[in-house]
Design a protein that fits this description.
alpha/beta; Cytidine Deaminase, domain 2; 15 helices; 36% helix; 21% strand; globular
């Protein structure tokens, strides 16, 4: 297939629309089911690059959940703890521990469930039956993977009344070195960002603390590769083999850090016993549970726990989760890794990151205030590597 006609572009008024190869070659994708749209393919092609690179540079299978051309999370195939399984709504999936790919997607989807609603999925390896069963009950637009087992394909084809978008990517496809895009009739040309992100990128440690454990290096690699395919400016928090907070598309770096930190905090709080023990009212669906939990953890929990509304959401009225309780719980968090797609211009980013349990940092360096940033990291006994490489993506 050399071209594929799309229903429309970014918006219904933008017609005609298609994807094709300018060099006249075959497209590297095959549509196995559904009819993906313009934004679907933007998500699919960016997401595929992300999981492919994580697999190549960590050795683990990987999955990501994409939404509007930025990842909500990315994860490798590590088993989930019982509390994380429950938090991710996968504690009832039979055989989950036996499928690293299913574990990876369960982590990615469960990180920021509000943002992942209606996501695009990318998998680094063949989609197996267990992974398909995890995907089958989530609200999702589509998936891209190098292959699908017959059982997985049959399950996925049953989604969205048979219209679920399933794309197969040629795993061996290598794009040309020069890429083009048009904006307002003007053609832009640049070399592809082929920069390799691996352990060697983390060798220039500039803080007094120098010890970077192997698992924390993997977390930093995941955060940096995630940023490589996130709309800039962006900051990513990661721990235990997954991105847990992505602050994307902010004009100010401290706003990136705050947004990523807030999402990471919610990921931690969802695993608190008070949240795991919530007893929902009969008939409350999975998407509604996400919204309810989000409000329960917000500054206005009375919207779902108030005297006049709690019965709509819960079979048993939940105990208040006070600000003091949440702060005390979050203070126990340590060992989190943070990546930034450009240098930190001020030490306020480090101060905020420390409040959110960050112990390991990777950023390009190169600010006129690098000394102040390093000083702040030293004060909090962090390990910080200067990568020397900016990772803007637009």
């Amino acid at each position: 297939m050399k071209e594929f006609e799309l229903k429309y572009g970014c918006n219904p008024n933008q017609k005609p629309a298609r994807i094709y190869m300018e060099n006249g070659k075959e497209l590297p994708v095959e549509i196995l089911n559904g009819r993906p749209g313009y934004i679907n393919f933007l998500d699919a092609l960016n997401a595929w690059q992300l999981v492919k690179e994580i697999k190549e540079n960590t050795g683990y299978v990987a999955a990501t959940s994409f939404k509007h051309v930025s990842p909500t999370s990315a994860a490798i195939g590590k088993k989930l703890t019982p509390s994380l399984k429950k938090s991710c709504f996968v504690d009832d999936i039979e055989g989950l521990d036996d499928s690293p790919l299913a574990c990876a997607y369960a982590r990615a989807r469960g990180t920021d469930r509000m943002s992942s609603f209606g996501d695009w999925i990318a998998l680094s390896d063949e989609c197996d039956e267990t992974t398909a069963r995890v995907i089958a009950r989530e609200v999702s637009d589509g998936i891209i993977a190098p292959s699908y087992s017959p059982e997985a394909l049959e399950i996925l084809k049953g989604k969205r009344k048979g219209g679920y978008n399933i794309v197969r990517i040629d795993a061996g496809y290598v794009p040309e070195e020069i890429e083009h895009k048009q904006v307002f009739g003007v053609t832009f040309e640049q070399g592809r960002n082929n920069f390799k992100i691996d352990r060697h990128l983390l060798e220039n440690i500039v803080t007094r603390e120098k010890e970077l454990p192997a698992d924390k290096a993997v977390d930093l690699i995941i955060s940096l590769i995630t940023l490589k395919y996130t709309q800039s400016n962006s900051v990513c928090f990661a721990t235990d083999g997954q991105a847990i907070g992505v602050g994307a598309g902010q004009q100010s770096r401290i706003h990136c850090t705050r947004l990523a930190a807030q999402k990471a905090d919610l990921w931690h709080l969802r695993q608190h016993e008070k949240v795991l023990s919530l007893q929902f009212a009969e008939g409350v669906g999975r998407p509604e549970k996400n919204n309810i939990i989000d409000l329960y953890l917000s500054d206005t929990p009375e919207e779902v726990t108030g005297e006049d509304v709690w019965r709509q959401n819960f079979s048993v009225r939940p105990e208040p989760f006070t600000k003091e309780e949440k702060e005390a719980y979050l203070k126990t968090v340590t060992g989190v890794s943070l990546g930034s797609d450009a240098f930190f211009p001020f030490s306020d980013n480090i101060e905020r990151a420390f409040r959110n349990g960050v112990s390991y940092v990777a950023e390009p360096g190169g600010s006129v205030r690098d000394d102040l940033v390093i000083e702040a990291a030293d004060r909090h006994h962090m390990v910080m590597a200067f990568t020397g490489m900016r990772l803007f993506h637009h």
